[in-house]
């Protein structure tokens, strides 16, 4: 009966693009997430087009009409966000800072995600002593005070953008490892993994083809949320002077000037934009992360 | 008829965590405790028992999906338990398994085409085109339309998914398929269709089945011989017709008397068992069934009965059929 029935109906194989999937539909319904995604892409866009958009060179002190360096100038038509203590244009530095802060965050998260996913899958899949070894290592790394560790490494190595990426990457893979391990433990017991083993598939392919695609959703969400954390860590390190070094602008080291009470109280244009940029980016990333979590969860059916 | 599968004294004990800091003696769940049987080529052996008696564990242990504690499994002349991992992978072509839950046994992120192609890729050197032909042929053999190949598992009903699961086992043309409760999760109306399909492909592909189930009606329908498991042991094994006509072991009698009968004339006396299945961690001494057996004798509490041949190819492990070491035949 069912067979005949099935043969009578013409079934068109549906080719679905990214923008037609259920996940995308659910994501679209979350207004905050869409708002976050739009604003975030705007930031990324600005960061990419920094040389075109920035009105001045962020490394050059500006000279005013009196022929002196235009130090701590308040916002004006010439310098929309004013200038800093060395007379550099704040808007240009903010735009170039986006480049640095975002790329540090993305690179760090990439390192953390790759490390975390690989270790997590291995620990979860092989179990036994491999699992114990990896998870105890994770516990140890979690116990490190992140800032202290970062500061010590940054002092031993020379503080630079690349070192900041690596440092943040190396201390933040632990959450991902734990998450991935848990998910793998769940998937490993399913019958389709058993079926793959019963057909003699080798372990690497089982992990890559059968397990990884089925745990992508939580990984994507975690990586997104981790980006926010990475931006924050980078800002903190740069603020403390062990992260991205002057004269390279980053949102964190732009805040550094606010350590002076004079700047903090009377020259808010120097630190408010950078602070706001960090706040907004993190907020947007978290909105997007939450939206993704809801959208990628197959249990929430589209309405 | 030649033997395809010979299972000889396999055991699977799962170790429990030691209690306390220094523990003491380690305890084991004796899921499968010394079972032996053979299956001939082209035959279907039904393995029945209530849930928790170790039938699924037995199936998986035979395929070495979980490593056995002890024993020997010979498939077509090769001892599986002696093989190295690499050689075992090659031999997996000959033995496949169909799972109980059609919702969990297909990877939700793979198209049906990819699910079916994977085993062929592993075990053969067929070209892409040959693989596609093979897949199309198998999918129509299990009664599905080739148009379904581009779809994902969640777009199918339970019965259709089970057909896909069967097709996945079929594509490498195995000799033995272990059917692990393949119809238990399905609707009764669909059960019959899938059972018939299982019988049809057995003829077409010259398959041998180990059919694991808790449903005696299904066993009656599909198998040639029946083995009854209780608490990790086989208590009775024999030809289907003999078994259903005259079950020997008190446990088998109870099981068969529990099959609902519609006709008044065929009503049997119900043998109702007391109590629950004991824990497989500390199975009862002597005969494992003595705690629930209506005919239990003193001997049953002390001596474990061995499987002995009572009728033609009909074995039972029960003291009721022997006196002073002598088999007295049927009672």
TrEMBL record, chain A:
Pfam family of the protein (one): BPD_transp_1
Q: Which PROSITE patterns match?
A: ABC_TM1
Top-level taxonomic group: Bacteria
Q: Does the keyword Transport apply?
A: yes
Location of the ABC transmembrane type-1 domain? 98-289
Instruction: Cite the entry's keywords alphabetically.
Output: Cell membrane, Membrane, Transmembrane, Transmembrane helix, Transport
Question: What membrane topology is annotated for this entry?
Answer: Multi-pass membrane protein
**GO annotation terms (biological process):** transmembrane transport
Name the family. Answer: Belongs to the binding-protein-dependent transport system permease family.
Protein known as: Binding-protein-dependent transport systems inner membrane component
Which organism's genome codes for this protein?
Planococcus donghaensis MPA1U2
Q: What's the source species' lineage?
A: Bacteria, Bacillati, Bacillota, Bacilli, Bacillales
UniProtKB/TrEMBL annotation, chain B:
Q: Does the keyword ATP-binding apply?
A: yes
**Known Pfam families for this protein?**
ABC_tran, oligo_HPY
Q: Where is the ABC transporter domain?
A: 16-256
Which InterPro entries is this protein grouped with?
Answer: AAA+_ATPase (IPR003593), ABC_transp_ATP-bind (IPR050319), ABC_transporter-like_ATP-bd (IPR003439), ABC_transporter-like_CS (IPR017871), Oligopep_ABC_C (IPR013563), P-loop_NTPase (IPR027417)
* GO BP annotation list: peptide transport; transmembrane transport
Keywords of the record: ATP-binding, Nucleotide-binding, Transport
> Which SMART domains does this UniProt record tie to the protein?
AAA
Concerning PANTHER family, the annotation shows: ABC TRANSPORTER, ATP-BINDING PROTEIN, TRANSPORT ATP-BINDING PROTEIN
- Per the similarity annotation, which family is this? Belongs to the ABC transporter superfamily.
Name by which UniProt lists this protein: Oligopeptide/dipeptide ABC transporter, ATPase subunit
């Amino acid at each position: 009966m069912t067979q005949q029935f099935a043969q009578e109906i013409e079934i068109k194989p549906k080719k679905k693009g990214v923008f037609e999937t259920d996940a995308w539909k659910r994501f679209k319904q979350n207004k905050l997430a869409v708002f976050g995604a739009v604003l975030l892409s705007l930031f990324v866009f600005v960061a990419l087009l920094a040389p075109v958009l920035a009105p001045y060179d962020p490394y050059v002190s500006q000279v005013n009409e009196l022929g002196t360096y235009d130090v701590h100038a308040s916002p004006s038509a010439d310098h929309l966000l004013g200038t800093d203590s060395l007379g550099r244009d704040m808007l240009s530095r903010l735009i170039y800072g986006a480049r640095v802060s975002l790329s540090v965050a993305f690179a760090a998260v990439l390192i953390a995600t790759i490390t975390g996913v690989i270790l997590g899958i291995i620990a979860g899949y092989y179990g036994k002593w491999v699992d114990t070894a990896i998870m105890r290592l994770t516990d140890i790394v979690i116990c490190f005070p992140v800032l202290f560790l970062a500061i010590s490494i940054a002092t031993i190595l020379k503080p630079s953008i690349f070192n900041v990426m690596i440092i943040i990457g190396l201390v933040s893979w632990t959450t991902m490892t734990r998450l991935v391990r848990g998910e793998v433990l769940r998937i490993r017991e399913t019958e389709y993994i058993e079926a793959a083993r019963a057909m003699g598939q080798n372990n690497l392919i089982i992990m890559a083809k059968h397990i990884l695609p089925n745990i992508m959703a939580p990984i994507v969400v975690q990586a997104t949320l981790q980006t926010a954390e990475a931006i924050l860590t980078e800002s903190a390190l740069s603020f403390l002077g062990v992260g991205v070094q002057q004269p390279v602008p980053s949102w964190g080291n732009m805040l550094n000037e606010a350590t002076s009470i004079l700047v903090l109280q009377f020259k808010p244009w120097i630190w408010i934009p950078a602070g706001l940029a960090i706040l907004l980016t993190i907020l947007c990333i978290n909105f997007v992360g939450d939206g993704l979590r809801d959208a990628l969860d197959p249990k929430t059916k589209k309405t | 008829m030649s033997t395809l599968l010979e299972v000889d004294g396999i055991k699977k004990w799962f170790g429990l965590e030691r209690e306390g800091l220094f523990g003491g003696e380690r305890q084991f769940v004796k899921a499968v405790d010394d079972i032996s049987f053979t299956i001939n080529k082209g035959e279907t052996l039904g393995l029945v028992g209530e849930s928790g008696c170790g039938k699924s564990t037995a199936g998986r242990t035979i395929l070495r999906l979980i490593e056995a504690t002890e024993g020997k499994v010979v498939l077509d002349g090769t001892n599986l338990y002696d093989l190295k991992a690499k050689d075992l992978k090659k031999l997996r072509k000959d033995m496949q398994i169909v799972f109980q839950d059609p919702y969990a046994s297909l990877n939700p992120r793979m198209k049906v085409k990819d699910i079916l192609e994977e085993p062929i890729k592993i075990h053969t050197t067929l070209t892409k085109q040959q693989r596609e032909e093979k897949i199309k042929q198998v999918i129509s053999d299990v009664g599905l339309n080739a148009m379904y190949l581009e779809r994902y598992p969640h777009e199918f009903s339970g019965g259709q998914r089970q057909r896909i699961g069967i097709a996945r086992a079929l594509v490498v043309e195995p000799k033995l398929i272990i059917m692990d409760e393949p119809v238990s999760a399905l609707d009764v109306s669909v059960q019959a269709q899938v059972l018939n399909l299982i019988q049809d492909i057995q003829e077409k592909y010259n398959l041998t089945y180990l059919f694991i189930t808790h449903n005696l009606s299904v066993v009656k329908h599909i198998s040639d011989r029946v083995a009854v498991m209780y608490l990790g042991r086989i208590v009775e094994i024999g030809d289907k017709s003999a078994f259903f006509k005259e079950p020997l072991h008190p446990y088998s009698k109870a099981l068969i008397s529990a099959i609902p009968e519609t006709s008044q004339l065929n009503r049997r006396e119900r043998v109702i068992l007391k109590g629950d299945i004991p824990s497989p961690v500390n199975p009862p001494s002597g005969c494992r069934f003595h705690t629930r057996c209506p005919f239990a004798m003193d001997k049953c509490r002390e001596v474990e009965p061995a499987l002995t041949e009572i009728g033609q190819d009909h074995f039972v492990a029960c003291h009721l059929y022997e006196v002073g070491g002598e088999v007295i035949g049927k009672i």
